[in-house]
Specification:
Helix content is 19%, strand content 34%. With 98 residues, it is an alpha+beta fold. Strands 4-3-2-1-5 form a 5-stranded mixed beta sheet.
């Protein structure tokens, strides 16, 4: 599966990120297919630069954005903001029912 996710860049304690397309099995900062833009959370306002045409093309090919990328793309109006992945949600256990 191909994913659109953030790749950490920058110096220690000064993170910036790149939007990259990579295989889901590749490490976070490992091999990638293409760079789609960059994101700097330390500026005010936060800097988000995305090549919208490339993002739309990869989404049309079936690439799945990670949850943080989906949130940032939704802020730009490229995707709808969906629910958090079902895998990450754990049902709450009712401790009082004993």
């Amino acid at each position: 599966m191909v994913k659109i996710r953030l790749r950490r860049m920058g110096a220690k304690k000064q993170p910036t990120y790149r939007f990259v397309v990579s295989d889901a099995r590749a490490p976070r900062d490992g091999r990638f297919i293409e760079i789609l833009g960059h994101y700097n959370p330390r500026t005010e306002p936060k800097t988000i630069v995305i090549d919208e045409e490339k993002v739309k093309a990869w989404l049309a090919k079936g690439a799945q954005p990670s949850d943080p990328v989906r949130r940032l793309l939704a802020a730009k109006g490229l995707v709808e903001r969906g629910p958090i992945s079902e895998i990450k949600r754990k049902p709450k256990s009712d401790k009082s029912a004993s």
